[in-house]
Amino acid sequence: MFPKDFLFGASMSGFQVEMGYAKGDLDPNTDWFVWVREPENLINSVVSGHLPEYGVGYWYNFPTIHKLASDFGMNVLRTNIEWSRIFPRPTYDVDVKVEQTESDITSVQIDERALRELDELADKEAVEHYREIFSDMRKKGLKVFVNLVHFTLPIWLHDPVAVHKRQETDKLGWASKRSIVEFAKFAAYVVWKFDDLVDMYSTFNEPNIVSQMGYVMSVSGFPPAVFDTEKFFATFVNQIVAHARAYDVMKTLTNKPVGLIYAASIYESTNSDAELEESVGQFMNFAFLDAINSGVLLFQTREDLAGRLDFLGLNYYTRTVIQRSAQELSFGLVNMNWSIVPGYGYSCQPGGFSRDGRPVSDFGWETYPEGLLKLLRMMNERYALPIYVTENGVADARDWLRPYHLVAHMYAVERAVEEGLNVKGYLHWSIVDNYEWAKGYHMRFGLAETNYQTKSYNPRPSMYIFREIVKELSTEKFRSYLSSPYQIWRQKG
Amino acid sequence: MFPKDFLFGASMSGFQVEMGYAKGDLDPNTDWFVWVREPENLINSVVSGHLPEYGVGYWYNFPTIHKLASDFGMNVLRTNIEWSRIFPRPTYDVDVKVEQTESDITSVQIDERALRELDELADKEAVEHYREIFSDMRKKGLKVFVNLVHFTLPIWLHDPVAVHKRQETDKLGWASKRSIVEFAKFAAYVVWKFDDLVDMYSTFNEPNIVSQMGYVMSVSGFPPAVFDTEKFFATFVNQIVAHARAYDVMKTLTNKPVGLIYAASIYESTNSDAELEESVGQFMNFAFLDAINSGVLLFQTREDLAGRLDFLGLNYYTRTVIQRSAQELSFGLVNMNWSIVPGYGYSCQPGGFSRDGRPVSDFGWETYPEGLLKLLRMMNERYALPIYVTENGVADARDWLRPYHLVAHMYAVERAVEEGLNVKGYLHWSIVDNYEWAKGYHMRFGLAETNYQTKSYNPRPSMYIFREIVKELSTEKFRSYLSSPYQIWRQKG
Amino acid sequence: MFPKDFLFGASMSGFQVEMGYAKGDLDPNTDWFVWVREPENLINSVVSGHLPEYGVGYWYNFPTIHKLASDFGMNVLRTNIEWSRIFPRPTYDVDVKVEQTESDITSVQIDERALRELDELADKEAVEHYREIFSDMRKKGLKVFVNLVHFTLPIWLHDPVAVHKRQETDKLGWASKRSIVEFAKFAAYVVWKFDDLVDMYSTFNEPNIVSQMGYVMSVSGFPPAVFDTEKFFATFVNQIVAHARAYDVMKTLTNKPVGLIYAASIYESTNSDAELEESVGQFMNFAFLDAINSGVLLFQTREDLAGRLDFLGLNYYTRTVIQRSAQELSFGLVNMNWSIVPGYGYSCQPGGFSRDGRPVSDFGWETYPEGLLKLLRMMNERYALPIYVTENGVADARDWLRPYHLVAHMYAVERAVEEGLNVKGYLHWSIVDNYEWAKGYHMRFGLAETNYQTKSYNPRPSMYIFREIVKELSTEKFRSYLSSPYQIWRQKG
Amino acid sequence: MFPKDFLFGASMSGFQVEMGYAKGDLDPNTDWFVWVREPENLINSVVSGHLPEYGVGYWYNFPTIHKLASDFGMNVLRTNIEWSRIFPRPTYDVDVKVEQTESDITSVQIDERALRELDELADKEAVEHYREIFSDMRKKGLKVFVNLVHFTLPIWLHDPVAVHKRQETDKLGWASKRSIVEFAKFAAYVVWKFDDLVDMYSTFNEPNIVSQMGYVMSVSGFPPAVFDTEKFFATFVNQIVAHARAYDVMKTLTNKPVGLIYAASIYESTNSDAELEESVGQFMNFAFLDAINSGVLLFQTREDLAGRLDFLGLNYYTRTVIQRSAQELSFGLVNMNWSIVPGYGYSCQPGGFSRDGRPVSDFGWETYPEGLLKLLRMMNERYALPIYVTENGVADARDWLRPYHLVAHMYAVERAVEEGLNVKGYLHWSIVDNYEWAKGYHMRFGLAETNYQTKSYNPRPSMYIFREIVKELSTEKFRSYLSSPYQIWRQKG
């Protein structure tokens, strides 16, 4: 049984759902907007060629989507406020008090005056529109979970094409320290403007993915797609500091919880190599979070970072199966002695079965629900924080796999709750099909199908299952999915 | 839109759902009970080896299943009364008035005395139990649709093993004319005993399949599995006459409608050979029904058969794709100049796609929803009768295909209604997984999944779709299924 | 290494290869000729509908095929003399001396007079034609391996349709004891007429398959396809006695070796159930051979049967995977407590992989080369006889699988030789594609492809491999096939 | 029929086959040697991680491989001389006479003195070793076809990592004009040193691929993998000029033919868009060759380039299926209005079938033999030159597809010859499996399988077919492959 106050809902992001009519809802001021139409990316097929402006249309249709959420039993929705919409032009000139050591920014303070100056720079229409969105959520009985940055950055802060081409630019995104200060301004402003309508905040969605895909996996289609281990570390650290500084300014303005959303996975080796699993998992899952929770940043103690987390958001899709490499790769600071094993986790052929016999999504991701339970146990043990599953779902246009997938993962959460873990909510990715970054409209993650022509949203069978689980506060009714026809993991879990 | 009084429900049959606990619910007195445990069938894998007595358990669990029907929006259920349960021993000795010509039985009359004698032979506990079942249906708001024979015959009337082995026997089932008389007694007795609880009757379910599978397709696993074209014709004609005689006696006792349920298909040729489609379809779809509707039995006029149909029940699963044979096969009376083309209709490899790119069920049956609309148009044009779709569904353990299948077929029915055809109801096969004859428990046709261990019945996602369609009286909400991802047949239909 | 005198060749059978032009080469006088055009079989698709008279055309083209054999390194060919061609009419009236006990025929003696009477009944043209065939084999450097019965029987001896329909008939084939006497006559006559041209004889090809497919697996398409355990045992025993009586008369006329060809398999259980493997293997592999080798016929000692085997021919295609049944089936004399596990051995889906990951042929047969080595060890240990692999091959139209299959099985034989087993030859099934019984021309077993229109025979790549192995007397050159890409069985073998 | 003097052989390249023992045969001085161990490439999986130094081992085992070629009927082998082996250090300081216009190098002259200076710089052991290789070829009856550059460049001429990272470097490979001069020196030196052993020369292998993969398809794994349309054009033009200057100096030293090897394809649109096929094919197939044949370089007439081709080498693997794009992409000078259609040509899923039902290789390349005939007709019509098919083959580890593939493509060549086209030879790619660039040892293109552990080379079945075709001078014997089981293209071709 889930408790009565458990949060059930879905997550979205601005860039992925807002645009749709390519008119008043257009936001051309993000790095991603530029990135998905860059010819180099198109000719190399690292982006889909789909245009985000012909998408879901949430900017105008939010009441319909909120009603859908409400009708199907949800009590929370997460989305983010697009920085570029609020501040389509730079905020550099707004003066704020910054303290820094030789190497880092240790404090940013934003006073009333600064907030007023920001207000002058802000797009008032956009502010008002987001207020309408959040008001409507509340009206429909949905808690409002606001995230600040979900991948996209204002184009005045990050020019991904210039960085990719290694051209001279000062628009370096998270690779530049000054982004930290601007982010603190944005964060403070959001709280100042929206706090009456918000239930909980997070600063970042998956900052680790931003670093990893942007600066290491340089053929993945993520901006700026440049292999640069220095920039990888810079963005990794700068996002940590940016979170802490934003947290500080936000908490001067609100008592509501401020958390962070992390992309976690379970690292399993093919030959039960516990040492390898430990060392890889340590970096991939804990290094970032340890910094903002315990103030340990890569072996260094940083009091200015510690204790900056009111809750932990976890996005979980599948495991990662790894093995030791024959040869160690050396990248400046880092040596890498492991690699990913194809045929498992994120590295499967779409649509079939993994090497373990588990069903694989349209994206090529393995269904591995026991990993979610494992993850919740692990995170609960390490961090004394309330945990929300902030993303979990499956790209499955035909809804073949989603009924099983949904039940199995919600069962994992239910079980975690029953074990006494401090898990407070489950937000599915996503309520409706939307723009899946480099894959565009090819990947369909919605509980409801989006018809992009008519802007209508049709519940898939899974959505009825979701409603039923929420109504019963239990997966009990659908547990037959757990034993057949794919996997009997209940015994093993 | 469906009209408000449209019947939405499901069909079952006694042998397929009643037994489950192998105790008080056991009925060992049918030909099929013997047939599925006959060693020759087992060693040749023409039957599954599954035992019907460990099945659904409807005999005791009917209230649960009726509640499920009611909860998910159904307003009618069809099942049959097992002849063998009511009369476990022969009824030959009950004297009734039979008139016959040289070749056929033209009248059977059953008076009160005969009914009382039958009553003495009847198993009163079984009678009472069926009354409880039907009463409960009514209590749950379900119309009671009672069928008389659904494949099984009492073992005292049909010894399928003896017939198969061509041993001397007088238990010939429908190959013997005296079965006609006994059936009339059974039919009369049922009306006499149950009429207060029944809304509509049918005499037979798929009599054409009984002849075809039993006496032609002799490796199909249907009793008595003997290739014998004379017996094929005898059973074909005797079931026609049996229907007419039963209809006559029933109508002396009730005003409720008496119909018949026919297994129909759409016959399409690979090269648009209209003449072939016409001639094959003529025999396969119309020969039986013409006899009891218009009194034309294979070129002969028979007034004693005409007008014996108050409504027509149609079971539709898929089409049949045919071609002319290189050589004509000669079977005594009949020459056969066509054959079935593999890769379409009933002749596909399970689980993949047909040669036309349509999804195929676990049974190897092609999804062909436009065939249902075509069939309804054709039948409506030929027979001025109310039509019920009395079976339609798909073997799909994982419910991958059923959401699409269900919506597409219900859309076909909705469209038929909108075209003004006299279609009155849609009964899905089936409400819960059950014993699929020669395939046993391998094929799962339920809107709800049957857990055979715990005797619990878990709604699959499709069942929520069914409920939604019934609620809205339209498939509108789910029409996105019709265009993707399989087929855009809406334009073509 | 194979020894220099090792026999390398191929096997054929008369019915499967002789006809092709449907004129002078036609032999309509066999049970199989009738069987494959019987309407009941056609409409049930238990036979292919292909006509054997449009086949390989060996009757006229034998020189081409013998040249092919010779060009590709073969030194032996096996075929059989069609009984029905030599004696198109009954030989009952030729008087011979028969001794019998109450239950069995213990001796048949055929003197010069009887042989002359047979000669008058024989079709002299057919005799002469077979002599030409064998002479040509010799001319091309091929040893002549003559088999007497390869499934087909003269229609005057076996009416499969009557038996199937359980009609009264005295044409019972091997179910009748008098077939034993007629077979002895045929055998004696063959030796008397052809001995100067023959190198080795066998009486029967796969008598166990004749019993099993004909009288138990009654939907398999083998005549007479009637489930009858008494006839099963009768044919089993009568073929044993027929072999012994034929052996006796043949040995009075020749010193050349007389053997028998048996369809063997390896019986493996899914759970290493040694007791089950032992008991099933005992009956399936040894019961028949024990009788004619050791004189032990189903627990009874029979001196008149013992020692009637000069060599043992083994046909091997794949293993049989078995399991204990939940329930024991009882068939009169026999109880059967096991069943075949689908997904292995003969019970796979065509064209993919078995549940063990081994490649599967067009026929649905698993590639299991280690079984051949296991079989040779087992048979060599039990019987102190020279062994020939008389059939082994794969249905593989595209020659995708055959290169691996051929090398792996010939490697098994080579290894058996190196272990000191008394293995003397390897005859591939087959040299050219031919008529595969119930499957007709669908299954292509040839090292060369038969073009049935032009009657030309094109070597497949495998045939070049075969030639190379024969030339080198070793599979060494091709052993890379053994480790990749399918199976590393060399280490395990 | 092929003519008696037709060249049948195979192609190799130095980098792909020479190394194997990682000792005396090691050549670490190429851009590719560095490239395949660059961490960025490894972590992104754009290279295989396989090391070329554990490869075929041709440097020492050339006699074995030459014998294999000779044993299987070949009369020619092509390989290249690795520039980096002959000149492991820069040749810049050797003074030669260069004439240039404002924009281009129009003449390079290399006199005896310069050749002697080059000789001092050259690695004499390497020179001697290549002479042994070519001598052995001749001894085995193989014509010696020497290519100069097959993708690899000396590391002193091209630093792919620096270029990729857009670091300052003067080692720009073909993007720098001075590479033209150094190449002329290398070309002259090769002729001066090896001409007595060589039968025919080519300057480049697939210069178009070097430009396209290196500077446009920047995620393909080809160095330097940088999207740069200016460099794309520079390398395209500089290779043209380099060919012409090398041709000039070579012809002062030899009378033997000097050609160039081009990677050609057939461009087909999905909707028979002749205009699109024409315009795309024009650039992709003709722009480079027109320059060195007719002196037309991108609309400019260049007499210093015209007539520099004695023969044309064509590498053909499959077609390219294209369609007009919805949007035109603009890349500086060029607008691109078309894109490649997935599911055909090079863009298939490995191992299955293309959208046209044609078998697909391990590499994901469609089998499209009619394209080769189409190509030969097209090239023969445009250029009045002898044509050699210098590469054609298939990645097929199991030799499932190669028999068909080989016969179908050699049939295309045979037919071209019979139509009177000036086609002189067919060189298969390749004689043995080797290092397939970014795919390493994963792709197996050999007629013989390379065992990389033992350095042995086992002929696959296809190699026997190749021998047979060469012996018969015709594909006649194997033409059954053309009609079954894949495609009947003979009628259509």
TrEMBL record, chains A, B, C, D:
Q: Which Pfam families does the protein's record reference?
A: Glyco_hydro_1 (PF00232)
Q: Which domain of life is it from?
A: Bacteria
What family does this chain come from, according to its entry? Belongs to the glycosyl hydrolase 1 family.
Q: Which residues form the active site?
A: 391
Q: PANTHER family per the record?
A: GALACTOLIPID GALACTOSYLTRANSFERASE SFR2, CHLOROPLASTIC, GLYCOSYL HYDROLASE
- Spell out the PROSITE patterns in the cross-references: GLYCOSYL_HYDROL_F1_1, GLYCOSYL_HYDROL_F1_2
What is the designated name of this protein? Beta-galactosidase
What keywords sit in the KW lines?
Answer: Glycosidase, Hydrolase
Q: Which molecular function term from Gene Ontology is one that the record holds?
A: beta-glucosidase activity
Q: Which NCBIfam families match?
A: Beta_gal_BgaS
Q: Which InterPro entries match?
A: Beta-galactosidase, GH, GH_1_N_CS, Glyco_hydro_1, Glyco_hydro_1_AS
Q: Name one GO biological process term.
A: carbohydrate metabolic process
**Does the entry feature the keyword Ribosomal protein, yes or no?**
no
